[in-house]
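hi!! sorry for the late reply, been swamped w classes. u asked for the two structures so here they r. pasted raw, havent cleaned anything up. first the sequence of the first protein and right below it the tokens
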Amino acid sequence: MTPNRLGSYVGAYRDFSPHGWAVKPSTAPQEFEVRLPNGFLFQIDDRFFPIEWWKVFDYNHVTTRLWHRSLCYLPLLAREAGGWQRVSQILVEFLDLMKRAADEPTILGMNSLDHAIALQLRSLCALRAQLHAEPVIDLIDIDALDAIMVETVALLEVHARSEGFRLVNNHGIMLGLALMHSQWVFDDVLRDESQLADDERWLLASLDEIVDQDGIVFENTPQYQRLYIDAIEQISEVARDLLGDRNSAQSFALRFARVVEGYRHLISAHGTVPAIGDAQRTKDHKYTYVPGVFVSPGNGIYVRNTSRAQLAISSGCRSHVHKHMDDSAIRLLVDDIDVVIDGGLINYDSGDPDAVAVRGQLGHSGLFFREFDTKPCHWFYPAGAPAKVDASLVHWVGDDGRDVVDCRYIIGSCEAQRRIEVLSATDLVVTDRCWGPAEAVQRFLIPPSSTVAVSSSSVVASIGEGLALRVEAMDVSTDTEWTIGRAAVGLERMRSETWVLERPVGAGGEPVRTRLSVVDSAGNTIDEGGLNVV
């Protein structure tokens, strides 16, 4: 292992953990404050040892334990005066943990263990590169520390390759990528050539299952599609530039092109990545949108992209991974303003009632049965078990040439049907019907800063920039019961409250028709913008 070989590796490859890691010295020598991406702070000092690997954290426990166990802060710690000595202490204890796990693998049990091991491998790769390619100012035994890293990586790789451990999802792909990195950085770890061939076959087969022919990943979240783009691109680069396997690199590059094309249908003309599934609304400054209509029934997605607006409809899925209870949900973005919104993601804390609610029915603009409003999303779509929801999306074109989208789902004895007639991306007619033991509700989440005015048959929400959302009952023969409330959402990396507009839908199949139009200050429906021009 030569410094020149590892010098170009330092800082060259992202590990895809979130931004926000920080390490800074405290006032006393060899004492440091560590900040995790979720904002959690902890101290590394003499009291940190022995390390509580099974500590239960008061704040957002699942995510905090993942980042705490990941070792991602160690490369930052190593760059501080006295940091390598603390890194050595931590790695000695971590190696002891891995030696115990060789005989008792269940002691590593935690949520996202596969993701944790992927990050541990990547952190050790970064550390070894720094150890051999950068000046080490601390008094440590470099050879002894290197030997600890080699032994630890060997144990991590055994665990990573154990039968059934790698799952076909983003964690499994990250783990496969981490094994490629460790193969190059730790080329002195003994491996069977057949293992390396199996690693490549597994990655290729998994990507072909994750990314379908529409170019959409099965994790129900555009931001995870973006993660796959970055991961597959790096897999191809590592295969070509580090491992010297151009044939393998080309195979991954073909899959990269397919997932990029699918992703471009999901972003708006303004580069906005919508809050569908487990993510907040974000921006993409690298890829441009594809205008037009995109439909992927297998993934339960309809998107109408114009130069001014994006309409997205969800119903159904290929997998339960990161799936919200958003079947029949509508999202509408106009001039980069959320008009009919999705609740996004607050966090993964099961003890946070707002975070749980936003991933269930209460965080989406759809047709829902009230009796299920308190159910978490994993009740509808449990991991490793059959879904309680049978949902579908069908797209067709009417005689007038306009799009029609039919959403349908069944939960036990409850059936919901929603038809969206797309007059344009800014003008929709929604017809809802339901059957079951109790009534349902037509629910729309509208911008938190709106000024809302209610009349007998319509609601007008002024959303700024001279625009308003008009929600109008089209079945005016009956009294319209509008209910206005508030709900917590996670739109852009922060918790906020938004307006919720609801209207009852009877249980006997009688249609409830509502028109949603985005209008200007004169009350005229605005033009959706060009459908065929980038």
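now the second protein. again sequence first, tokens right under
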Amino acid sequence: MYQPGVTEAIWHFAGYLHLADELARARIAYEEFLREQYIAAEKFGVDPELTSIAPVTFEGMGANATHVDLSHTKDTSYDIRIRFKHDANVPEADIGHPVQGDQVQQFIANLYFAPGVIEPNYYLIRFEGGDQKWIEIHQTNHMHTNNYVNVVWESGIADLHDVDVEASLASMMELAEAAFPEAYMPDGATGAEILDFFVNHQEEIASSGEAPPQVVQGVYVNGVLQAEGTEVKLDLFDDDGHREGAPPLMPRALADDDEEDESEDASLADAGAIEPAEAEYEGPFQAAAVGGKIADNTAVIVDANEACGTMVVMGNWHVTNAIFQLNIYSDNDHVSVAGAGNGFGPLVEAGGNVAMNRAELADRALFDDEIDNRGMTGFNWEIETVHGDFYDIKTLFQENYVCSTDITVQSMSTANYSLMVDHTGQYNLISLSDLGSSYDLIVVLGDYHSANYIKQMNFIEDSDYVMSASMAENGGGGQSVYTGQNYLLNTASIYSYRDGEYQEVTDELESFLDDVENANYIQPETWWEISGAGSTTMNVLYVTGDYYDINYICQKNVIADVDTAVQMFSPGGGAGGQYLSTGANTAENYASIYDFGAYGDQFLGGEMYEDSMLVQTNIVAGDDDDIEYGDVDQLASELVAFVDTSGGGSGDDDGGGFMSGAEIANGGDMLGGVMT
């Protein structure tokens, strides 16, 4: 007989005996548990068939985390998540695939009460812990690009434009600072500075003796509260990514019917255009689009760290919710145009800038019905103690800086000449989801400081200098010049999910809190007399100091698109036309904060101080367009000085053209999307 095998079999058999003994003892404890459970159920009117309940949990939320769709992105969104392991100091980055879904409805749908595990051997344990977080994220893009096409520097073309871009942006930023109340403008750009600001702000409100400012909840568009159910159109982009109100598509040559391919219609499309079809020329044309920059910030914070069954604050409770939105632009264009007259569109279309702000402030309940689990909660206690203050700080900073000074000259008139310069984009996207620790009870012996804050700013400097002359034969195909048509959008929302009522701290509650701190065990009935929220094993966070809960998003887009564009169409170019667009820039900010609190009872030992603020403003720093309709011969004589003839001969060398086209020369800093 193989001795090791026998020994192993005996060892397993002994293990089975041990397991049976444990099961027998567990059955006795389980029956005792059920007996007490039925007594509690009879007393509190709870279904006795429910023998255990698990805490509300936010686990598994990663795939359905809230997100914001970019308006110009078709059928997709980007969900970049950071998940937190409660036993690790460093968050784990989790970059998900593009997902779709409704926003907070999907989030709430994943809150659930799952069947719990019966734990008949009652216990109470204490340990130092606390799921504290201090998160500070900065996303910054800097792009500086100058493009020069067919430029003769000796001609002085660079001196046509007299805009001091740096001074103009500095002036606009001063106007922006003056538009916001100083009492709500944090200094600095670090989490510590943001925290200090809100603590001082809230303590000043508490000590002032005056009623804090309050904003009526709802949806606001450009400072106007919308009636409930009103649909606000913010998505001005069609399925192809073309924006309403932007210039039409760049023109293309008229193709033969048997060669025309509809699938290529949008190949030369302006990034901001919406018209489904381009103009067609039966001859050569000049077309240039030198604007179309995009700067976009998207940020979402889902803060479920304070999501709990019951919240107890023995000190004062401070709450600040604030949204600040600003759009400011300068669009002073000079346009000199002369020639054949109106062709496929307006001869000169200036202005048409759109600036919009949308904001929503809303308090919502996690559950429609009151949660009352008396008779099933408080049999076991796991108490995390934080000696001192508790910090849950999340600050996100997103900035895009796009600076472009383009100079383009087009003179070829014997062939189709399409020029698209600098249609670039800068994007910041992040979704920060803190799913919390599923606390049943949070106790704060000090003050509670809560703040949800969103600040959004868009700056566009789009002052252009345009000269367009056409001497096309037989009136030509016409001229169209578009300056302006910029789009500035801020949209923000703060949703607070918690029970809206606050109860006073009673003697029974104070006695219970003393047990939480000192007792070897807490009887379930003691908890049932206080609250119906919780789970069979109570997960408790006990903070001896103050609690700081800050969610902060700051977004800024700066676009400087100062262009000089010259077009000259010669008399030898047939019946061609001209198209020129220098604006159509887009600056967008999207931000949402979802802040979750207690779904059950809230107890307050001190005073409640709650303030809210909303500022939405659009500032036109400059919109003075100078449009001159002149004599074509006179304007053409001025443009000759700016045209480069060194790239080829004139006359018969290019098929009879008045001027030949030089090779494209690029200059300046072509860095794009540099992170700093």
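hope this helps!! also noticed smth abt the second:
Residues 339 and 470 are 4 Å apart (CA to CA).
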